[in-house]
Amino acid sequence: MAVLREPVDAAVTGAAVTAGYLFGAVAGRLLLVTVLTPPFPAAPALVETVLYAGLAFPLVFGGIGGDLGARVA
């Protein structure tokens, strides 16, 4: 595994987890709506799910984690 020397490169690499989180958030939301809706009538909206759980949190915290990991390593 290559060690990233630039903090920006490390942050971009850390933010790459967004693809997995986006897939998981959308799949989880669809599972909640299709399978678990009768016992749980309140489901999150798709737009908020994608924006918050799929994009915003992984981009921010993945980037911070990648930057901190590069600084510590």
What does this 3D model show about the protein?
- Helices cover 71% and strands 0% of the residues.
- It contains 3 helices and no strands.
- It has helices spanning 7-14, 18-34, 46-72.
- It is rod-shaped, with a radius of gyration of 16 Å.
- 16% of the residues are buried.
How would you summarize what this structure contains?
By secondary structure, the chain is mainly alpha-helical. It has three helices and no strands.
Features:
single chain; 73 residues; mainly alpha; 3 helices; 71% helix; 0% strand
Question: Which parts are unreliable, with pLDDT below 50 for 5 consecutive residues or more?
Answer: none
Rg, Å, rounded: 16 Å
Largest sheet: none
Q: What string, H for helix and E for strand, traces the elements in order?
A: HHH
Mean pLDDT over the residues: 81
The separation of the N and C termini measures: 12 Å
Helix segment tally: 3
Query: How big a fraction of the residues is strand?
Result: under 5%
Class by SSE composition = mainly alpha
Overall outline: rod-shaped
Question: What is the number of strand segments?
Answer: 0
Helix content: over 70%
